[in-house]
């Protein structure tokens, strides 16, 4: 599977001039731990996460360094300056992480998982020509695993059949996401994964039953869908597609 198969397409973002308090509220209200920072052209210029916001002067958690004999050295002075900006800066541009690790839509999920693990990060933006087209989190990968079936020995499909199946699943998912995008009255769209023409829908447990049913019906009416399965997760609603 590739990044395009499981990525969240409609991504919650912030601009670099947003206040630190505004982005903290955004993360809290949407139950997410980080968001991309984009410019006017939708290019990713940074990431801001809970880790960038926890050492703040306002709540008395700024980093305290013990003074050492080498405090006057340039490297130590530079780090102290960075710490001060992180704890006192008022805008996202002051606190965001600028070195962004990203993938593209054709990146294999195995490579995505390796990036997340080796870099100790929870999410990675998906870019097309430097512009944001989606995001993949650890949760997306876990849901992709949940939607798969264990293959019995000797029953694996041929490589050609597997490719056709993947292309068909991608087509189904694209058409369903487009239909859900037109349903503006749904408060929070769900995570959608298609595997072997079965649509897996992920709902928050407090999403209205009528909205769940509407999404289910939309999935059933998507051409070439064989089955629809619903999965309920606790907590605040997931970021929309």
In words, what does this structure look like?
This protein is α+β, with helices and mostly antiparallel strands and 241 residues long. It folds into two domains: 20-124, Roll (CBS-domain), CATH 3.10.580.10; 147-233, 2-Layer Sandwich (GMP Synthetase, Chain A, domain 3), CATH 3.30.300. Helices cover 37% and strands 18% of the residues. The protein is built from eight helices and seven strands; from the N terminus they run ααββαααββααββαβ. The strands form three sheets. A three-stranded mixed sheet has the order 5-6-7, sandwiched between helices. The chain has a two-stranded antiparallel sheet with strand order 1-2. It starts with a helix and ends in an 8-residue tail after the last strand.
């Amino acid at each position: 599977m590739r990044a395009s198969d499981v990525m969240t397409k409609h991504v919650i973002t912030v601009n670099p001039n947003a206040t630190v308090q505004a982005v903290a509220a955004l993360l809290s209200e949407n139950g997410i731990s980080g968001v991309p920072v984009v410019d006017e052209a939708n290019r990713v210029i940074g990431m801001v996460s809970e880790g960038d916001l926890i050492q703040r002067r306002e709540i008395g958690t700024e980093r305290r360094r013990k003074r050492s004999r080498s405090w006057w050295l340039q490297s130590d002075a530079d780090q102290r300056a960075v710490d001060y900006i992180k704890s006192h800066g008022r805008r996202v541009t002051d606190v965001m992480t600028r070195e962004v690790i990203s993938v593209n839509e054709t990146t294999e999920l195995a490579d995505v998982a390796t990036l997340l693990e080796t870099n100790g990060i929870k999410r990675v933006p998906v870019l097309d020509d430097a512009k944001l087209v989606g995001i993949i989190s650890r949760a997306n990968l876990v849901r992709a695993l949940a939607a798969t079936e264990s293959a019995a020995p000797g029953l694996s499909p041929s490589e050609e059949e597997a490719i056709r199946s993947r292309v068909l699943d991608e087509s189904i998912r694209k058409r369903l996401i487009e239909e859900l995008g037109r349903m503006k009255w749904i408060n929070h769209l769900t995570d959608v994964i298609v595997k072997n023409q079965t649509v897996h829908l992920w709902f928050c447990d407090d999403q209205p039953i009528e909205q769940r049913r509407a999404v289910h019906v939309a999935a059933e009416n998507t051409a070439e869908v064989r089955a629809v399965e619903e999965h309920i997760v606790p907590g605040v609603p997931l970021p929309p597609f």
